[in-house]
Amino acid sequence: MKNHESELQTLLISTINGLKISMKSIMKEQGIPLSPLYFMILKRIHDTENCTANFLADVTEKDKGQITRLVKEVIAEGLVIKRPNPNDKRSQFLQLTDSGLTCYMTLENADKAVLKEMRSEVSDEELQQFLSVGAKMLTKLNAINHKKERG
Amino acid sequence: MKNHESELQTLLISTINGLKISMKSIMKEQGIPLSPLYFMILKRIHDTENCTANFLADVTEKDKGQITRLVKEVIAEGLVIKRPNPNDKRSQFLQLTDSGLTCYMTLENADKAVLKEMRSEVSDEELQQFLSVGAKMLTKLNAINHKKERG
DNA sequence: TTAATATAGTTGATTTTGTCAATTTGTTTT
DNA sequence: AAAACAAATTGACAAAATCAACTATATTAA
């Protein structure tokens, strides 16, 4: 068998690219003055009970400083508020406001529609397979990166 | 079956993220003062006969101005040269220099090693499947984005 | 129980990427 | 030849990412 690894990389890059383009176009359509990154932030806050900035930095693998600024922005837009974390005075819980939730739902629905259409010719079983293989590779990749970090 | 679309998106994002981190760390190790984007550029130039700036903008889906600047940079580094395109005086062919090739090969080999290890627990058949399903989704995604562009 | 160490979050400075519009030079169409 | 189009460049700017230093609180271990 040939080396398909390179193809793999190209495929992933192009796909992410396409998703980003799609999300941008959705946001533009909806007149929402945010970028795909903010959608990610809103989504995580929505999905995570007692979400903290630190958690965001962790799961998104982004710089803590960057997270601070992104969160500051969505707070300025009135989409998110901070609540004190009773267990730790250094940290705060992030929560969507009503308008944040509305905004998020709009984007989430449009995003889901794209993903749904994107996979419209892929069977449930194929997708399942795809996800499981992808997850396996991701685990491995994380192991490689993590090992290097320390080594 | 549940909605796995969202999982799909998360998987893709995390994987790309991991690959970028890996490439960054490779470049650092090798003492190559470039960023992952430049690797992409070098790779395309390497893989494409008579590669033009315009082609790069096309396949990478990036702004032409950005490409101009990226190319300017690799030329300044002595990794790439321009040759006139005999068929069109507006455009030029891009080509790796010897040192560009050396640099590219170094990165490419390290990159391949990562990809290879990443898929080390995935069989050829599984990978084949993965690529084929991924390609199907990418095609669909491009169709969606392309349609919107015009609509 | 305090002293050292670690963690959550913020800020500043800088670099890297991405975007938009205008311009130059050359090509294609009519 | 004029109009429309295309390749590449430039300027100005905005968004995203990186790195290091710093504040305030928590945790650990002497």
TrEMBL record, chains A, B:
SMART domains xref list: HTH_MARR
HTH marR-type domain mapped to chain residues: 5-139
Keywords: DNA-binding, Transcription, Transcription regulation
Gene3D superfamilies membership: Winged helix-like DNA-binding domain superfamily/Winged helix DNA-binding domain
Keyword Transcription regulation appears in the UniProt entry: yes
Name of the protein this chain belongs to: HTH marR-type domain-containing protein
SUPFAM superfamilies referenced in this protein's UniProt entry, alphabetically: Winged helix' DNA-binding domain (SSF46785)
GO molecular function: DNA binding; DNA-binding transcription factor activity
InterPro entries assigned: HTH_MarR-typ, WH-like_DNA-bd_sf, WH_DNA-bd_sf
Species of origin: Marinomonas profundimaris
